[in-house]
Write a structure and sequence with these properties.
By secondary structure, this protein is of the alpha/beta class. The protein contains five helices and five strands, in the order αβαββαβαβα.
Length: about 140
């Protein structure tokens, strides 16, 4: 339900190529760093969102979603589940088209709120795993 193949395909192929990656820092040992690189290699523009606002993979970072001065298509969430709902609400507020909660990030109430706001959403999945499955 939270990773419907049609929704995954739509987010990866149809909703746009600007992905804000919340929790992305220059720490190469973190999953967000590797996933962002996979997204970048598949034609997505990644936008690092982290309190440190670091440049990652050559892209300028921002301390929050509302600090990004351009439209974001997808918000990819690499924060703990207890913080993820707030990020989903911020994604709605900035006009994103979709929210993607990474593996292990689960907040059913946030999923329901985000879908009710009209955004597509995937939860507890990883785009770096899903992209190769699309063939």
């Amino acid at each position: 339900m939270y990773g419907d193949p049609a929704t995954i395909r739509k987010i990866l192929n149809e909703l746009g190529d600007t992905w804000a990656v919340v929790g992305l820092s220059s720490n190469e040992g973190r999953a967000a760093y590797g996933v962002a690189d996979v997204l970048r290699r598949h034609g997505k523009r990644i936008v690092p969102v982290h309190p440190k606002a670091e440049t990652v993979h050559g892209e300028k970072g921002y301390p929050s979603l509302d600090a990004i001065p351009f439209d974001v298509d997808v918000v990819d969430v690499f924060v703990n589940s207890d913080l993820a709902g707030t990020v989903a609400d911020e994604a709605v507020a900035i006009g994103a088209k979709a929210v993607w909660f990474q593996l292990g990030v689960v907040d059913e109430a946030a999923y329901d709120r985000t879908r009710a706001a009209g955004l597509d959403m995937v939860m507890d999945h990883c785009p770096a795993i899903e992209i190769p499955r699309l063939g």
